[in-house]
Fold this protein.
Amino acid sequence: MPETEEDAVATADDALYVLTAALLTPAQYPSVLGDDYPEACAALGLPPLADGYGLVLGQDGEGARWTVVIDDVSLVAVAIASWDCGMEYELSPDDRSVVAALPGWPLEVAVAAPGVPAPHDPDPGLGDGPALSAPDTSTWGPAQRRLGADTIALQWSLWREQVDDAAFSPPADTTDTADAPQQAGSDNGRKGHRGIRRALAEARAYVDAPPPLGRVRSSFAPGDARTLRVDGPGWSLVARTDDIAFVLLDEEPGEVLPVGRGPELPGLLEALDKMAVRPS
Protein backbone atom coordinates (compact mmCIF):
# COMPACT_ATOMS: atom_id res chain seq x y z
CA MET A 1 0.00 0.00 0.00
CA PRO A 2 1.49 3.41 -0.89
CA GLU A 3 1.69 5.80 2.04
CA THR A 4 0.57 8.88 0.12
CA GLU A 5 0.45 8.47 -3.63
CA GLU A 6 0.78 11.65 -5.68
CA ASP A 7 -0.91 9.95 -8.64
CA ALA A 8 -4.05 11.67 -9.86
CA VAL A 9 -6.96 9.97 -11.60
CA ALA A 10 -9.65 12.00 -13.29
CA THR A 11 -13.00 11.44 -11.62
CA ALA A 12 -16.12 13.54 -11.99
CA ASP A 13 -14.86 17.12 -12.41
CA ASP A 14 -11.80 16.78 -10.20
CA ALA A 15 -8.66 14.71 -9.77
CA LEU A 16 -8.29 11.78 -7.40
CA TYR A 17 -5.14 11.53 -5.32
CA VAL A 18 -4.62 7.79 -5.03
CA LEU A 19 -4.08 6.42 -1.52
CA THR A 20 -4.47 2.69 -2.01
CA ALA A 21 -6.14 0.08 -4.19
CA ALA A 22 -7.72 -3.35 -3.89
CA LEU A 23 -8.86 -6.18 -6.13
CA LEU A 24 -12.49 -7.21 -6.30
CA THR A 25 -12.47 -10.55 -8.14
CA PRO A 26 -13.85 -14.01 -7.37
CA ALA A 27 -10.42 -15.16 -6.16
CA GLN A 28 -9.28 -12.00 -4.40
CA TYR A 29 -11.68 -9.58 -2.77
CA PRO A 30 -11.76 -7.73 0.56
CA SER A 31 -13.18 -10.41 2.85
CA VAL A 32 -14.53 -7.78 5.20
CA LEU A 33 -17.19 -6.98 2.58
CA GLY A 34 -18.84 -10.39 2.46
CA ASP A 35 -18.72 -14.17 2.66
CA ASP A 36 -18.45 -14.44 -1.13
CA TYR A 37 -17.69 -12.43 -4.25
CA PRO A 38 -21.32 -11.55 -5.18
CA GLU A 39 -21.93 -10.34 -1.61
CA ALA A 40 -18.80 -8.19 -1.73
CA CYS A 41 -19.91 -6.71 -5.06
CA ALA A 42 -23.39 -6.04 -3.68
CA ALA A 43 -21.83 -3.99 -0.87
CA LEU A 44 -20.66 -1.57 -3.58
CA GLY A 45 -23.77 -1.85 -5.72
CA LEU A 46 -21.87 -3.60 -8.51
CA PRO A 47 -22.87 -6.64 -10.61
CA PRO A 48 -20.58 -9.63 -9.96
CA LEU A 49 -18.78 -9.70 -13.32
CA ALA A 50 -16.67 -12.80 -13.93
CA ASP A 51 -13.47 -10.82 -14.55
CA GLY A 52 -13.97 -8.59 -11.52
CA TYR A 53 -12.85 -5.06 -10.85
CA GLY A 54 -10.03 -2.96 -9.50
CA LEU A 55 -10.83 -0.50 -6.71
CA VAL A 56 -8.85 2.74 -6.50
CA LEU A 57 -9.36 4.66 -3.26
CA GLY A 58 -8.35 8.27 -2.85
CA GLN A 59 -9.32 11.89 -2.23
CA ASP A 60 -10.26 14.70 -4.55
CA GLY A 61 -8.85 18.22 -4.30
CA GLU A 62 -11.37 19.09 -1.60
CA GLY A 63 -10.39 16.07 0.49
CA ALA A 64 -13.56 14.09 -0.28
CA ARG A 65 -13.34 10.30 -0.27
CA TRP A 66 -13.93 8.52 -3.59
CA THR A 67 -13.71 4.94 -4.78
CA VAL A 68 -13.05 4.64 -8.50
CA VAL A 69 -14.06 1.25 -9.92
CA ILE A 70 -12.17 0.19 -13.03
CA ASP A 71 -12.29 -2.90 -15.23
CA ASP A 72 -8.50 -3.02 -15.74
CA VAL A 73 -7.87 -5.64 -13.07
CA SER A 74 -4.30 -6.34 -14.23
CA LEU A 75 -3.29 -2.69 -13.76
CA VAL A 76 -4.41 -2.70 -10.13
CA ALA A 77 -2.81 -6.10 -9.50
CA VAL A 78 0.56 -4.84 -10.77
CA ALA A 79 0.28 -1.69 -8.66
CA ILE A 80 -0.49 -3.64 -5.49
CA ALA A 81 2.35 -6.10 -6.13
CA SER A 82 4.77 -3.23 -6.69
CA TRP A 83 3.72 -1.42 -3.52
CA ASP A 84 3.98 -4.64 -1.53
CA CYS A 85 7.59 -4.92 -2.71
CA GLY A 86 8.33 -1.36 -1.64
CA MET A 87 8.49 -0.10 -5.22
CA GLU A 88 6.92 3.03 -6.61
CA TYR A 89 4.17 2.57 -9.14
CA GLU A 90 2.04 5.26 -10.74
CA LEU A 91 -1.51 3.99 -10.78
CA SER A 92 -3.19 6.02 -13.49
CA PRO A 93 -6.13 4.18 -15.05
CA ASP A 94 -7.31 5.17 -18.49
CA ASP A 95 -10.61 7.04 -18.41
CA ARG A 96 -12.08 4.32 -20.64
CA SER A 97 -11.49 1.73 -17.93
CA VAL A 98 -13.54 3.60 -15.31
CA VAL A 99 -16.77 1.77 -14.49
CA ALA A 100 -17.99 4.02 -11.69
CA ALA A 101 -16.89 6.75 -9.29
CA LEU A 102 -18.50 5.96 -5.94
CA PRO A 103 -18.56 8.40 -3.03
CA GLY A 104 -16.88 7.22 0.16
CA TRP A 105 -14.59 4.29 0.92
CA PRO A 106 -15.75 0.70 1.51
CA LEU A 107 -12.54 -0.08 3.40
CA GLU A 108 -10.56 1.49 6.20
CA VAL A 109 -7.76 3.73 4.90
CA ALA A 110 -5.20 4.87 7.46
CA VAL A 111 -3.49 7.55 5.33
CA ALA A 112 -4.54 10.80 3.70
CA ALA A 113 -3.39 12.80 0.70
CA PRO A 114 -0.97 15.63 1.57
CA GLY A 115 -1.98 19.21 1.01
CA VAL A 116 -5.75 18.63 0.91
CA PRO A 117 -8.42 18.84 3.64
CA ALA A 118 -8.95 15.87 5.96
CA PRO A 119 -10.86 12.93 4.47
CA HIS A 120 -14.62 13.41 4.44
CA ASP A 121 -17.59 12.18 2.44
CA PRO A 122 -18.52 14.18 -0.68
CA ASP A 123 -21.60 16.35 -0.70
CA PRO A 124 -24.68 14.11 -1.14
CA GLY A 125 -25.50 15.60 -4.52
CA LEU A 126 -22.16 14.58 -6.02
CA GLY A 127 -22.69 10.83 -5.95
CA ASP A 128 -25.31 8.24 -6.72
CA GLY A 129 -26.76 7.09 -3.42
CA PRO A 130 -25.25 7.25 0.07
CA ALA A 131 -21.50 7.32 0.55
CA LEU A 132 -19.73 4.01 1.06
CA SER A 133 -18.34 3.28 4.51
CA ALA A 134 -16.18 0.50 5.90
CA PRO A 135 -18.01 -2.29 7.76
CA ASP A 136 -18.06 -1.93 11.53
CA THR A 137 -15.35 -4.13 13.03
CA SER A 138 -15.42 -2.61 16.52
CA THR A 139 -17.46 -5.55 17.82
CA TRP A 140 -17.35 -9.24 16.97
CA GLY A 141 -19.47 -10.21 14.02
CA PRO A 142 -19.19 -11.42 10.42
CA ALA A 143 -16.83 -8.64 9.29
CA GLN A 144 -14.43 -9.08 12.20
CA ARG A 145 -14.67 -12.88 11.92
CA ARG A 146 -13.59 -12.72 8.28
CA LEU A 147 -10.78 -10.28 9.09
CA GLY A 148 -9.60 -12.71 11.76
CA ALA A 149 -9.49 -15.49 9.19
CA ASP A 150 -7.48 -13.22 6.88
CA THR A 151 -4.96 -12.65 9.66
CA ILE A 152 -4.55 -16.38 10.30
CA ALA A 153 -4.02 -17.03 6.59
CA LEU A 154 -1.31 -14.35 6.46
CA GLN A 155 0.36 -15.43 9.71
CA TRP A 156 -0.14 -19.16 9.48
CA SER A 157 3.18 -20.16 11.10
CA LEU A 158 2.53 -17.92 14.10
CA TRP A 159 -0.88 -19.47 14.75
CA ARG A 160 0.18 -23.02 13.91
CA GLU A 161 3.00 -23.08 16.44
CA GLN A 162 0.50 -22.36 19.22
CA VAL A 163 -1.34 -25.64 18.58
CA ASP A 164 -0.17 -28.83 20.25
CA ASP A 165 -1.28 -31.76 18.10
CA ALA A 166 -1.57 -33.86 21.25
CA ALA A 167 -4.53 -31.68 22.26
CA PHE A 168 -6.74 -33.23 19.60
CA SER A 169 -8.93 -36.03 20.82
CA PRO A 170 -8.65 -39.36 18.95
CA PRO A 171 -11.60 -40.18 16.65
CA ALA A 172 -14.14 -42.68 17.87
CA ASP A 173 -15.20 -43.51 14.30
CA THR A 174 -15.28 -41.91 10.85
CA THR A 175 -18.33 -39.81 11.71
CA ASP A 176 -16.87 -38.37 14.90
CA THR A 177 -13.40 -37.31 13.86
CA ALA A 178 -10.70 -35.38 15.62
CA ASP A 179 -12.21 -32.24 14.20
CA ALA A 180 -12.08 -30.22 17.41
CA PRO A 181 -9.52 -29.69 20.15
CA GLN A 182 -10.29 -31.56 23.33
CA GLN A 183 -11.47 -29.18 26.03
CA ALA A 184 -12.88 -31.55 28.62
CA GLY A 185 -15.26 -29.99 31.10
CA SER A 186 -15.42 -26.70 29.20
CA ASP A 187 -18.76 -25.23 28.11
CA ASN A 188 -16.90 -23.24 25.49
CA GLY A 189 -15.36 -26.44 24.17
CA ARG A 190 -18.76 -28.08 23.74
CA LYS A 191 -20.14 -25.06 21.92
CA GLY A 192 -17.06 -24.92 19.74
CA HIS A 193 -17.39 -28.61 18.88
CA ARG A 194 -20.94 -28.18 17.63
CA GLY A 195 -20.03 -25.09 15.66
CA ILE A 196 -17.05 -26.77 14.07
CA ARG A 197 -19.11 -29.75 13.01
CA ARG A 198 -21.70 -27.43 11.47
CA ALA A 199 -19.03 -25.50 9.58
CA LEU A 200 -17.42 -28.70 8.28
CA ALA A 201 -20.77 -30.14 7.25
CA GLU A 202 -21.61 -27.00 5.27
CA ALA A 203 -18.12 -27.00 3.72
CA ARG A 204 -18.62 -30.63 2.65
CA ALA A 205 -21.93 -29.66 1.06
CA TYR A 206 -20.07 -27.16 -1.14
CA VAL A 207 -18.34 -30.07 -2.89
CA ASP A 208 -21.67 -31.44 -4.14
CA ALA A 209 -23.47 -28.13 -4.62
CA PRO A 210 -20.98 -25.34 -5.45
CA PRO A 211 -21.69 -22.16 -3.46
CA PRO A 212 -21.51 -18.59 -4.77
CA LEU A 213 -18.13 -17.65 -6.28
CA GLY A 214 -15.48 -16.74 -3.74
CA ARG A 215 -16.74 -18.79 -0.81
CA VAL A 216 -13.94 -21.27 -1.49
CA ARG A 217 -10.61 -19.71 -2.41
CA SER A 218 -7.16 -21.24 -2.83
CA SER A 219 -3.88 -19.37 -2.70
CA PHE A 220 -0.15 -20.05 -2.54
CA ALA A 221 1.47 -21.82 0.41
CA PRO A 222 5.03 -23.11 0.89
CA GLY A 223 5.97 -26.39 -0.74
CA ASP A 224 3.22 -28.17 -2.63
CA ALA A 225 0.51 -27.05 -0.22
CA ARG A 226 -2.24 -24.50 -0.76
CA THR A 227 -3.90 -22.12 1.67
CA LEU A 228 -7.68 -22.49 1.67
CA ARG A 229 -10.19 -19.82 2.72
CA VAL A 230 -13.74 -21.11 3.04
CA ASP A 231 -16.62 -19.02 4.32
CA GLY A 232 -20.27 -19.60 5.08
CA PRO A 233 -23.13 -18.11 7.10
CA GLY A 234 -21.65 -17.49 10.53
CA TRP A 235 -18.30 -19.22 10.02
CA SER A 236 -14.89 -18.99 8.36
CA LEU A 237 -12.33 -21.74 7.83
CA VAL A 238 -8.61 -21.34 7.13
CA ALA A 239 -6.52 -24.39 6.28
CA ARG A 240 -3.36 -25.66 4.70
CA THR A 241 -3.99 -28.63 2.44
CA ASP A 242 -1.09 -30.51 4.09
CA ASP A 243 -1.94 -29.56 7.67
CA ILE A 244 -4.76 -28.67 10.05
CA ALA A 245 -7.47 -26.03 9.85
CA PHE A 246 -8.80 -23.22 12.01
CA VAL A 247 -12.46 -22.27 12.35
CA LEU A 248 -13.91 -18.96 13.52
CA LEU A 249 -17.59 -18.70 14.45
CA ASP A 250 -19.92 -15.75 14.88
CA GLU A 251 -21.26 -17.36 18.06
CA GLU A 252 -17.77 -17.71 19.57
CA PRO A 253 -16.46 -14.11 19.81
CA GLY A 254 -12.70 -13.94 19.40
CA GLU A 255 -12.21 -17.71 19.53
CA VAL A 256 -9.90 -19.46 17.07
CA LEU A 257 -10.75 -23.17 17.04
CA PRO A 258 -8.15 -25.60 15.63
CA VAL A 259 -9.37 -28.57 13.61
CA GLY A 260 -7.26 -31.75 13.67
CA ARG A 261 -6.65 -33.63 10.44
CA GLY A 262 -8.26 -36.91 11.53
CA PRO A 263 -9.38 -39.35 8.81
CA GLU A 264 -11.79 -36.93 7.07
CA LEU A 265 -10.17 -33.49 6.91
CA PRO A 266 -7.45 -34.31 4.31
CA GLY A 267 -10.01 -35.55 1.80
CA LEU A 268 -12.28 -32.58 2.44
CA LEU A 269 -9.46 -30.08 1.93
CA GLU A 270 -8.39 -31.82 -1.27
CA ALA A 271 -11.93 -31.71 -2.66
CA LEU A 272 -12.36 -28.05 -1.70
CA ASP A 273 -9.04 -27.13 -3.30
CA LYS A 274 -10.09 -28.72 -6.57
CA MET A 275 -13.22 -26.59 -6.76
CA ALA A 276 -11.70 -23.38 -5.36
CA VAL A 277 -11.15 -20.22 -7.38
CA ARG A 278 -7.50 -19.21 -7.66
CA PRO A 279 -5.72 -15.95 -8.46
CA SER A 280 -4.84 -15.78 -12.13
About this structure: DSSP finds six helices and ten strands in the chain.
